[in-house]
Amino acid sequence: MNRLYPTCRFIHQFYTSAVQRSKPLFFIASLIAVAVFSFCIAATRTTLFTDHEVGDAVDSLNGVKVYYNGSVDHVCGRNVAADGYNLGLKYQCVEFVKRYYYQHLNHKMPDSYGHAKDFFNKKLADGQWNKQRNLTQCSNPSQRKPQADDLLVFDGHAFNPYGHVAIISAVTDNTVEIIQQNPGPSASSRATFKLQQANGRWHIDDSGVLAWLRK
Fold first, then answer.
1. Disulfide: which of 11, 140, 172, 213 matches 151 by Cβ 3.0-4.6 Å?
2. What are φ and ψ of residue 40, in 5° steps?
3. Per mean pLDDT, which range of 18-27, 86-95, 185-194 is the poorest?
4. Mean pLDDT over residues 16-45, rounded?
5. DSSP-assigned letters across all residues of 52-90
6. What is the number of other CB atoms lying within 10 angstroms of the CB of residue 119?
């Protein structure tokens, strides 16, 4: 599923704060929340501003293609590899990251099912082994700097309880670029986030980022 657009997330935080402060602000925030909720739903489910058809290749990394999915809740059936390994539902975000790890990194996950946010095991400390995914889990923030080919996990939220996953495509000392499938019908397959280092730990500056997983 797609991650929350920054505007929607800001309004969600404002609404929560308003509820805690006063009734007038609560009333105003409620009206705004209804409008923003409608906007976010429409933005993730309409395809008015694109020429792509579902299944079109829109991007690629190391030879692994990203396919257009249209509405974020659209599914074209399950993608299963020739050896029977479950790659996920076409063309959701999970399907791309698992297909990328399978095709480019020759990696299979012991647990090949679950929603995007389920890739993060909240019981693990930074740097511990995630047995379900057979990957090292680096919490956000982490002592380990993100690197290309890491799998990035986003938490769920009010507009998308399932979370989101992507592949880190490039890293500098202060930015992280990702490549993603199913970010929304009019959203880009690429996104960039600020990367900060403090007290020996690396932090991707986005409140939704839970962790990055590494082979």
1. 213
2. -65, -40
3. 18-27
4. 54
5. --TT-EEEEETTEEEE--SSTT----EEE-TTS-EEEET
6. 28
CA dihedral 136, 110, 2, 74 (to 10 degrees): 170
CB 109 within 8 A of CB 132: yes
Task: Please give the Cα distance from 178 to 193 (Å, whole number).
Answer: 8
d(CA 186, CA 124): 35
Residue 111: alpha-carbon gap to chain centroid = 19
> Which residue, 90, 135, 88, 75, is CA-closest to 114?
88
Whether 138 and 209 have beta carbons less than 8 Å apart is answered as: no
